[in-house]
Amino acid sequence: MIISNLTCLLINGAVVTRSAQRILDQARGYGLLTTDELVRRTGLTRSDVTSTVEALLATGVLRERADQRRGDGGTPLQIDPDRFATIGIHLGRRLTTVGIGDLAGRVVSTRSVSHHEGVERNLDRITPWAHRMLAELPGRVAVSAGVVAPWRDLGLDPDRTSATLASGLGLPVAAAHHLAALALTETRQHSSGRTLFVYGRDTVGFAVAEDRESSTTVTRVGRLTHVATGSATPCDCGRQGCLEVTVGDHAVALRAHRDGLITEDAIGELYTAAIAGNFRAHALLTQRAETLGAVAAQVQRTVRPDRVILAGQAFTSYRPALEVITRSYASTVTDPAPVTFSRLGGGMQSSSACTIALGPVYADPLAVVGDRVGQPVGGR
Ligand SMILES: [Zn+2]
């Protein structure tokens, strides 16, 4: 049940030893930082910070912001958001999403294509897609890529997939489980302690992240496919009422289509119908929200986190259901951990893939970026 491919754990300080990594981690977390602040925050010596900053400025990873100078604290530095790019690839159960990100992990452009010809066919097309997207962002040089997926569901091997993509893109490619990637993307915004992420779209799963100062470690990733909900929906496993066939986006859309609520089996149409006042559509989504809230509460009872973050379109896409989810969550167990919804919203897939894409750069920024300086856009 527990799926682990956590190569991405190297990303965020867990195995950080080099100065450049530590400086970049701080710059990513805090935005603008002076040399003094970097010395304080990284614990490195002043001469280490000064020489590393010089090298990062020379390769264009960092830039100076004289216009942001405060008092006599020296010229602030920041990660240059314009010069380099990462390519984040999210292979979902039904969609391939390609995002172009900057070196601070922000997504600057994104594109999704359905898997109707199979995920392998889409894998062959990723290099030309990425190159076209980069061509629309003139001046940016791609330096690394990341690929995230529910690997087992797709029947893909992360190492083989990233090797194939690396040879197509001509870039280092990091691979991670999609839920681990989500946890690493979101925990940057929170304080220390243990965070439980419960994710729902077509699949439902969870990830647990432990945050200590500058390092985040994803300690568990799991699927909730066959958790019993008491519904009458039959599942491939032979039982009925399993969680994913009851609440997954595609499963819900299929049921609504079969019941004549929508004309296509597309979840977006169900949201539109519910918002337009279709009571049966609203009732279906409310019932799903109750189930999702209750399941999140049950998972948090076993994980005992400091906070819970609910993510993925099944949780976040239908605004009127948010309140139903939180109410159901709060009433399922006594004294549950505080719960919030992911701020990544619909951009979650490309954001989390772009976070993983930063792995090779942050692990060795001078080598990875230095290799690329002066190369044409598109990275080859
Ligand atoms: Zn089942």
Structure description:
With 380 residues, the protein is an alpha/beta fold. The protein folds into 3 domains: 7-79, Winged helix-like DNA-binding domain superfamily/Winged helix DNA-binding domain (Arc Repressor Mutant, subunit A), CATH 1.10.10.10; 84-182 and 352-370, Nucleotidyltransferase, domain 5 (2-Layer Sandwich); 190-346, Nucleotidyltransferase, domain 5. 43% of the residues lie in helices and 20% in strands. The protein is built from 15 helices and 12 strands. The strands form 3 sheets. It has a 5-stranded mixed β-sheet, with helices on both faces. The chain has a 5-stranded mixed β-sheet with strand order 10-9-8-11-12, sandwiched between helices. A two-stranded antiparallel sheet has the order 1-2. The longest helix is centred in the last third of the chain and has 25 residues, at 279-303. The two termini are 39 Å apart. Residues 1-17 and 376-380 have low confidence and may be disordered. Residues 226, 235, 237, 239, 242 line the site of zinc ion (ZN). The site of zinc ion (ZN) has 5 residues, from loops. InterPro entries: ATPase_NBD, ROK, WH-like_DNA-bd_sf, WH_DNA-bd_sf. This is Putative transcriptional regulator.
